[in-house]
Amino acid sequence: MISRRQLLATTGAAAATLAMPYVARAQSPIKMRLAHAANEVHPGHIATVEFQKALEEIAPGAVEIQIFPNRQLGDDKQNLENTVAGTIEIGAVSGVLVGLVTGRQSLDSFQLPFLIRDYEHFADLAAGETTQKIFDDLAPAGLVGVQVVDIGQRNFLTVNEPVTKTDEFAGLKTRILGVPLHKAIWEAVGTNPIGLPYGEVYGALQTKVIDAVEINVSSIVGENLWEVGKYLTLTGHYPWHQVIVVNKPYFDGLPKEIQQALREAGRKSTAPTLAYTKEQDYGARDDLTQNKGIEIVELEDLPNMQQKVKPVLDEWSQKSPLIEEFIKEAQGTS
Q: Tens digit of pLDDT for each residue in 193-218?
C-alpha cells in the first residue's frame, strides 16, 4: 500500500513535471493545425490567438499550433467537416453548424433568440456545468469541445431603408446561415430567409439579391459590408458563438497532460476574447456612423419581435434535454 507521504511525493513530482518546459520532457513540440474562416481583426481569429497564447503559458514549448485564418483551408462548414474527419486537428467554427454537420444539436443553445442577455451573461454560461455537458455531448460526433466564445451580438443590416418596427421585417430577403434554427427564427420574424455562404454576402447585398443580413458589427467591419449596407437596426437577437473543437481520436491519442492543457487553455482564453469582442462591437459602432456612412437605429417595438420568436425556444427545448437545461440556467430557473 502506498503511504500518504509517498502519494504526496508522487503527486508533487507529476505536477512539477507538467509545469516544466516541454523541452525538458521531449525533444520537439507536438504540432497542430487550427483552421477558421475569419480575418485577422475579427474576434473569431482573436479567440484562436488567445487560445494559442494560453496554451503556451500553461505548457510552455509543449505544443506548436499553426493558425490558418481567412478561409485558407476552407469555409466554416468545411473546417468543421475536416476536423470531424481528422484532416485537420482543430477547427474554430460557428457553433450552430455543429448540429447541422453532426446531428448533435445541444450547441444550438447558445443561439436561441433573446436568451443570452449580454457578453457578461455569456461568460457566466460558458463557465457553467451545462456547457461542459454540452462539450461532452460532442464525443459521439468525434469531437472534443475546448472553448466557446461570443464573437459578436447579432443585429440587422439593410440596404434600402432602415427597419424600425417589427412589421417592417415582413418579406425582406434576408441572408441567414442555412441551418434549421436560423430558418425557424427568421420565418417567425416574418422575413424571407435565404441561406448563403458567408463569403457571398457582400456581393449579394451589392447586387440586391438580398435586402438584408442578420450580422454582427465585427463582420460588417471585417468584410467591409458597410460599403453596401447602410442601415443597422440594433436588435441584439442572439450571440454568434464560435467553438474550438478538436478531432476526438487525435485528442485521445495525446498525452494526458496535453489533453488537460488544451481544455484549460480553452477556459482561460474565453475572458480576453469576450473583452475584445465587446470593445470592438461598441467601439466600431461610432466608426460606422461617423466615418462609414452607416445609420444606426433602434427597433421601436423590440418586445414584439421577442414575442414572435418565443415559440422557437419552446420548440428547441424539446430537441435535447441539454438545451432545456441550458434555457433554464440562462433564465435563472434551474
A: 999 988 899 999 999 999 999 999 98
Q: Residue by residue, what is the 3-state secondary structure of the chain?
A: CCCHHHHHHHHHHHHHHHHCCHHHCCCCCEEEEEECCCCCCCHHHHHHHHHHHHHHHHCCCCEEEEEECCCCCCCHHHHHHHHHHCCCCEEEEEHHHHHHHHCCHHHHHHHCCCCCCCHHHHHHHHCCHHHHHHHHCCHHHCEEEEEEEECCCEEEEECCCCCCCHHHHCCCEEEECCCHHHHHHHHHHCCEEEECCHHHHHHHHHCCCCCEEEEEHHHHHHCCHHHCCCEEEECCCCCCEEEEEEEHHHHHCCCHHHHHHHHHHHHHCHHHHHHHHHHHHHHHHHHHHHHCCCEEEECCCHHHHHHHHHHHHHHHHCCCHHHHHHHHHHCCCC
d(CA 244, CA 38): 13
pTM: 0.87
Report the C-alpha gap between 300 and 277 in whole angstroms: 26
Q: Give the cell for residue 92.
A: 474554430
Q: Which residues of 310-319 are buried (b: 16+ CB within 10 A; e: fewer)?
A: eebbeebbeb
**What are the grid coordinates assigned to 232, written together?**
443597422
Question: Which one, of 103, 81, 62, lies nearest residue 259 by Cα?
Answer: 62
The whole-angstrom distance between residue 114's C-alpha and the CA centroid of its chain comes to 16
Per-residue pLDDT tens over the stretch 245-257: 999 999 999 999 9
Does the domain at residues 154-239+280-330 carry the CATH identifier 1.20.140.160? no
Instruction: Please state the domain extents for the chain.
Output: 29-152+240-279, 154-239+280-330
Question: How far apart (Å, rounded) are the C-alpha atoms in residues 268 and 49?
Answer: 12
Answer whether 29-152+240-279 and 154-239+280-330 agree in fold. Answer: yes
The topology under which CATH files domain 29-152+240-279 is D-Maltodextrin-Binding Protein; domain 2 (3.40.190)
